[in-house]
Amino acid sequence: MKILLIEDEKELAESIKSYLSGNDFICEWTDNVKTAIEKISNYEYDCIVLDLTLPDGNGLEILKEIKRQNKSEGIIIISAKETLETRIEGLTLGADDFLTKPFHLSELLVRTQAIIRRKKFKGNNFVTFNEIEIDILSKTVKVNGRKLDVTKKELDLLLYLIGNQDRVLSKSAIAEHLSGDMADMLDNHDFVYAHIKNLKNKLKEAGIIDYIKTVYGLGYKWQNE
């Protein structure tokens, strides 16, 4: 799962980034409106954690831009502004949740997980696709009730593919999902092919049909046929 953290307090940002990364999220960080809008325009995230008071503007301007672009990312506002008016304005503009500073990182984590479950997996901790069952919390995969041994990257890839069923995902989009904006610095995205191949082989060995379709020249698609 990939998070964009928009926070200008460096110490807090580093704490959040470290905590979320330690809980298997890829967490990118920016501390200003300009870069945040560039990232939101160029990449996709599972959730955006948004501070309101930023050095070059108000975080609500970012929220408006997210909605103007019809982005579907979950949004949690984190702010020291605890007035009712601020919370109402943020939620009215389209935020999914509002967390007042200071907060416990564990609370931010569970709220982030809850938003992603609601946005991507209909609010469930279990993602089921035909004979495949994924427990998001325990990070385990079963096929017809038998545990399937997958790596963390393969689990992330499987969730990403199922969460975007019938949608063609480019190799670069998959690379960014698995590695964050570090993918831009790589000479190629061949590691995506390797992860796709390994996941396909494991699913095949588990006795299920190949749901991962190659769309030549475009990318890959999870398809139920």
List the helices and strands and how they pair.
Blueprint (H helix, E strand, L loop, with lengths): L1 E5 L3 H12 L4 E5 L2 H10 L4 E5 L1 E2 L2 E2 H10 L5 E6 L4 H10 L3 E4 L4 H17 L4 E4 L2 E4 L4 E4 L2 E3 L3 H12 L7 H9 L10 H16 L6 E4 L3 E4 L3
Parallel strand pairs: 1-2, 1-3, 3-6, 6-7
Antiparallel strand pairs: 4-5, 8-9, 9-10, 10-11, 12-13
Task: Fill in the keyword field for this structure.
four-stranded antiparallel beta sheet; 225 residues; alpha/beta; five-stranded parallel beta sheet
Helix count from the secondary structure assignment? 8
Note the run of SSEs as H and E: EHEHEEEHEHEHEEEEHHHEE
Q: Which stretches are poorly predicted, pLDDT < 50 over at least 5 residues? A: none
Order the strands across the largest sheet as they lie in space: 2-1-3-6-7
* Class inferred from helices and paired strands: alpha/beta
Mean pLDDT: 91
The major pleated sheet works out as:
5 strands, parallel
The dominant shape is globular
* Beta-strand percent range: 15-25%
Radius of gyration: 18 Å
DSSP helix fraction: 40-55%
How many DSSP-defined strands? 13
Q: Please report the distance between the alpha carbons of the first and last residues.
A: 26 Å
